[in-house]
Design brief:
The protein has 16 helices and 4 strands. The protein is mainly alpha-helical.
Length: 443
């Protein structure tokens, strides 16, 4: 097994994260670092902090040169961070010492690394938001399509009361829709620029430090927090928590589909089923199970990131390294879960005949609650509940349907509506259609 499933030749497609994988490579990091260093030089030149000619040269060169990440390994092992070696390699590559001396002016390693990370995270989370919307559209279509399709609602793994498959889709979608709205409302302030120097005081950046940071944020399309955040990991912990909540919300659908696809139920079919090596009759719910596994992985990684938010003093090497270990895996895992979920929701088909059959096979005990309320119209509620329990016991003991047992016990009452599936759906169809309408109202 490879060290990371996302890099594995044989597991990579199972945990495919789409375009996100390209954002978490050494080459992508080098490119982001170059963009930050180039933009910093450009704004410092424009503000007169360094010679403008040097700022323009460094900005232009940063978009053209390359830095070999492998060449940074030895120095990174010694320094615990790649930026000293990166800056030295870039200065050497430029072959223009009169300009290169102004590279990285007043910044510290964490400024460059954190800002470059935010550039990549911004693209990654925008990707997640786009595909989350696609997934929501798929769920909304299914919610509307199956709004009246009766399915057994289940609690503790047992039939409880009737519901609709459309309402189940809406239940999958509601937390996802809330997460979509939350990100859209927060995204303008979610991705922070970092520029405050060695100990967060901006001392080496000079009197125009605040102007420099604001200009750098504008140049890179990031948010200026107007403060140092070297030891304040709030922006990263918020993103990590949002991604984890997304993964777990997706896993709700994965877990339900794994159950509903079982041979014993057979109530849904979907794309992403796989075969067994020895049992040709099986179609395993691989994609659904993968989502559930990825959510568990994200939850574990999120705990590392939340714990790593405690940085001692002005910078904490160990806590910072913990982010490097956990954050890329968390984002890729959430992306892979969303990739599977989007495909599942697009190819999901309800087996309505099997749903009806499963309702019937319960001896109609699923209508016990409805029966107790119908009887409560004729007698006190506690008595109605007690009578219903006795009728259920009789049905189970005799193997007869509850409707027949109830009709025999209460010949004078018309209980037909109690045992009509469509009459027992309550707000389920309306909720399914409300969710679909809410998704379609998205801009």
């Amino acid at each position: 097994m490879a060290a990371s499933v996302f890099d594995s030749q044989h597991l990579g497609k199972l945990f495919h994260s789409g375009e996100l994988a390209a954002l978490f490579t050494d080459s992508a990091e080098m490119r982001a670092l170059l963009l930050v260093e180039g933009a910093l030089a450009k704004v410092q030149g424009d503000l007169g902090i360094i010679p403008q000619a040097s700022g323009s040269f460094l900005h232009r060169a940063a978009m053209e040169v390359q830095v070999d990440p492998g060449g940074l390994a030895e120095a990174t092992q010694a320094n615990g961070v790649c930026i000293p070696a990166f800056v030295a390699a870039l200065r050497k590559t430029l072959e223009a010492p009169e300009h290169a001396q102004y590279l990285h002016w007043g910044a510290t390693s964490q400024d460059i690394l954190d800002t470059a990370l935010m550039l990549r995270l911004k693209r990654a989370f925008e990707h997640l938001s786009i595909h989350l919307k696609h997934h929501l559209n798929n769920i909304a279509e299914n919610s509307d399509k199956y709004a009246e399709t009766v399915i057994a609602g289940r609690t503790w793994g047992q039939q409880a009361t009737p519901s609709s498959f459309g309402a189940l889709n809406a239940a999958w979608g509601r937390p996802l829709l809330a997460l979509y709205h939350e990100f859209e409302a927060h995204k303008a302030q979610a991705f922070w620029v970092s520029l405050s120097g060695a100990a967060g005081t901006s001392g080496a950046l000079g009197p125009k430090a605040a102007h420099t940071r604001a200009a750098l944020a504008k140049a890179l399309g990031l948010h200026d927090p107007a403060t140092s955040w070297h030891s304040d990991r709030t922006p990263l912990t918020w993103l990590a928590a949002w991604a984890t909540r997304l993964a777990n919300a997706l896993a709700k659908m994965g877990a339900d589909l794994t159950e509903l696809n079982m041979t014993e139920l057979g109530e849904v079919t979907f794309t992403g089923a796989g075969s067994s090596s020895t049992m040709p009759q099986k179609q395993n719910p691989v994609a659904a199970a993968t989502i559930t596994a990825l959510a568990a992985h994200a939850t574990a990684l999120n705990s590392v990131l939340q714990g790593a938010a405690v940085h001692k003093h002005q910078r904490d090497g160990a806590a910072w390294m913990s982010e490097w270990l956990a954050l890329p895996q968390l984002v890729l895992g959430t992306g892979a879960a969303l990739h599977h979920a989007e495909h599942l929701s697009r190819g999901l088909v309800a087996n309505s005949a099997r749903m009806e059959d499963n309702l019937a096979r319960s001896q109609e005990l699923i209508y016990a609650e409805a029966l107790s309320f119908a009887l409560a119209a004729q007698m006190p509620r506690p008595e109605a509940q007690a009578q219903t329990k006795e009728l259920c016991k009789t049905a189970q003991a005799t193997g007869r349907p509850l409707s027949a047992v109830a009709a025999e016990a209460f010949e004078q009452l018309d209980l037909s509506a109690v045992f009509a599936p469509a009459a027992q759906l309550g707000e389920a169809p309306a909720e399914a259609r409300r969710f679909a309408a809410d998704v379609r109202a998205l801009p």
